[in-house]
Predict the structure.
Amino acid sequence: MNGEAGFIGLGSMGLPMASRLIVAGHPLRVWNRTPGKAASLVAQGATVVAKPADAAAPGGIVFSMLADDHAVEEVFAPGAGLLERLGKGGVHVSMSTISPAAARRMAEQHGRLGVAYLAAPVFGRPEAAQAGELWICLSGPDAAKERIKPMLAMMGQGWFDFGADPGAANIVKLCGNFMIAAATEALGEALALAEKNGLDRTGVFEMLTGTLFACAIYKGYGGKIATQNYQPVGFRLALGLKDITLALRTAAESQVPMPLASLLHDRALAAVAKGRGDQDWASLALEASEDAGLLAARTHQSHAR
Ligand code: NAP
């Protein structure tokens, strides 16, 4: 049996990640705002605790996989009890996609109580989390990294160390999600062009991703965009909008014009405004089809039948 740890946040990602740790022999104390979501972990042997502080042991390790800056900063606020209980020698492994500014702020607050803050945002959707195949970006203090690596190995297929700056790993994560959104937009526009000109979307997708664009993102997202089947929902569009917003905010703070990110932001904002916030974020590509009149044409055809 390995060391006990805490896990906070059991959404689409947190649940399979926590499950991997339990299967690897780590008894977990888990907390989620909606406690019912922990049921499958209880069946695996996890202990559900009533408040975040109870997930921590003095000097222990707590993982978090919460939605956004607000959620992580609220749960780990000084005075809320969790950091105080973790205390000297404790480690918070913060795996959400949050702003580098929030990560740096929390690292400072944690440090005052002797807790190490480790940024460990991940690439990979819930299926990858389930299979232990996430890619993990790390930044923060070295000793904490060494301590948690055996547990990261249960969740990911590898990690990349971006140094001591607690914000660094989050910047890498925002860069990656910006690139995924850009690929989604490119695929959405290209396949709308093909369809409007009488071509089969799937055939075009297969040619392009079987040859010049044969990478995981074009293939994985392209398959959903070609067939316009956005089920199951792996990553909510509302969270994608959060990430593009964070990328733009970080860009503004560091004076980096990102005209493409501005366009993607408007795309995502429009999609959320139209009620697509809880759809998978690959459905961002629907915007291009909609602008080309393809969605309206399809609705018209199905009504005419
Ligand atoms: P999700 O399914 O929406 O889960 C969000 C989690 O945060 C839930 O446990 C939710 O609790 C909790 N939460 C939200 N607001 C809270 C608050 N104010 N106080 C306490 N708890 C709160 O999201 P997810 O897809 O698992 O994503 C989690 C993080 O990973 C996000 O930062 C996301 O950007 C990142 N990420 C996601 C993916 C993906 O493919 N899904 C991939 C890589 C990274 P409830 O259950 O009570 O709502």
In short: The pocket of NAP is lined by residues 9-14, 32-34, 37, 65-68, 70-71, 74-75, 96-97, 122, 125-126, 234-236, 239 (CB under 6 Å). The chain has 14 helices and nine strands.
